[in-house]
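Why Carbohydrate ABC transporter permease? Reviewers of the renewal asked for a concrete example.
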Amino acid sequence: MIVGKREAWTGRLFLVLLMAFTIVPFVSLFVTALHPSGSYPSGLEWPSEPRWGNFADAFRAAHMGDLLWSSTLIVLGVVPVSLVLATMAGFALGHLRMAGRHLVFLMFVLGLTLPFEGIITPLYYVVRDMGLLNTRWAIILPLIGLFMPFAVYWMRAHFINLPDDLSEAAQLDGANVWQLFWRVHVPLAAPAISSLAILLFLWTWNQFLLAIVLVDDPARRTMAGALGAFQGQWGTDIPLLCAGSLLILAPTLIVFLIFQRRFVSALLQGSVKG
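Here is what the prediction returned.
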């Protein structure tokens, strides 16, 4: 009994420390954002006169209204297409007995090992040859391809755990492959699809590297591309940079808080097993 209580308290202490380790950087961002513009605050010192107007100044300086619209268009171009392709591919690789499915799945797994930074140079020349530089398509199309390995792996892990009895019963009722996919398996995959949608939204919204390298027009970048607006010739405005970072994080935090139950539900149902 004593050992069990000790383990419980140790686990709680570990969770508290982990929570503090996670929250402190956000508290530091918030406190720094309230200092006078152009200053260089140190530590977690609360300013004598908090500058709440820094958030409005950061919004105007980075033209975040235009970037908010641009990010929305990019998300609408990436997330739905990625979900459809990943769900169909995951169903084929995880549930259908197609020839060569293990080899195809291995190729997707190998795609998980490719970092964005390692392929940004050849990707730049490919996008340039396609005539898509400085357009939102330069972000949308590469992101769909780069997200596919993880998205297909995620959806396959869900479909591979479903019992074959469901498909056999539907086929006995005369359902073809498309009806089996759309009417039987997609509704059952709603938690996995919704949680994948949340992840793709977060990754697309916070995409910085592709937006900076492939798009020169700041108005066509993602919200994360607004961070470059606080970099001057001789230095960086740290308080406005922190205020801008919090404004960029706000939509992703709101989306996660709203849909966190679906996300946790998908994890508990074993959507990443297999």
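The mean pLDDT is 83. This is the kind of structural detail the renewal will allow us to pursue systematically.
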